[in-house]
Amino acid sequence: MIFFQNLTDNFPFLSLIFSLILITGFYQFGELILFNNSFGSIFKNVSQLKYQKTLVGINFVMIILFPVVLFFEHSKYVISLASISIFCLGLIKIFFSLKKKFLIKFNNYTDNKIEYFLFLAAIIGYFLICFSPVNHADSLSYHLGGSEYIFKTGKLPTALENFEHLLIGSGEVVMSLGVFFGAEQFGNFIQFSALISLIGIIKKLNKNNSFYSLLILSSPVLIFLASSPKPQLFHVASNAVIFTILFLNFNFFKKEKPFSSCLIILVNIFVINSINAKFSFILS
Question: What is the structure's pLDDT at 23?
Answer without folding.
Answer: 95
